[in-house]
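Holo model, fe (ii) ion. Inputs:
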Amino acid sequence: MLIAHLTDTHIGLDPGALAGRIDPAAALRRALAHVRGLAVTPDVLLLSGDLTESGQQADYRALRTLFDQELPGHRPRVLAIAGNHDLTPLARQCLADWMPAPAGAPAGLACVLAEQGGLHFIGLDTVVAHQPHGELGAAQLDWLARTLHALAGQPVVLFMHHPPLVTGIAAMDDCGLLEGRAELARLVAAHGGVQLIAAGHMHRPILGALGGAPVVVAPSTSHQLELDLRQNAPLAVRLEPPMIGLYRWTPQDGIACHFSHVQTFDGPFPI
Ligand SMILES: [Fe+2]
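Output:
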């Protein structure tokens, strides 16, 4: 099982807003071409939110068109969750096949449940309408507890927009997952089979852990944020080379997380 993880595609962001240096659609096109060029085709492609910059229907359509153009024919199964820049109901309406709705999920939330290659993917909806921060409320945690109980003994991947981590990037932690982290940790620890928690939101590659499971935050396909760990550091964009996450999993070997730079077409060379 190979999982590609792309996040924070921000389709619709006006390149002029960031000094004309960023074109999210072109960046996603390059990232998808990178996926297409991988020696091993991923089985699943996770999108962990901020699919669009401002939740416009035209941008969800443009996102799908980019996938259709860059990954035609046989391609990974796409699973998506919304982020704080999305309009969650519209995302689910436009991308219903990428966001399969589980029976019994809490009303008004866009949770996702899917099985692929022996792994159970659970997408959590951390979005608080019109707010940059995220939360996991009681209804969703209760649903997750029941879902994980039903999957006792089976391997699970959780994915969500806001990572359940305190990263030290203060301005982003202030709008991170502000409720539900401790409860999520307890559920993950109790299940014991969560192979990975994949998230976005931070626009940086970050690794951590929660409840005994690894947490991986993939960088944006478009623009990264400055790595500044001072307590009052202002947010700033940095145009580091984008990367995608590539996570290999087998029942025997467990999980191994790689990051692959986009646009590195000058190798590999035999040595
Ligand atoms: Fe984002």
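The mean pLDDT is 95. The first helix runs from residue 24 to 36.
Archived with the compound record.
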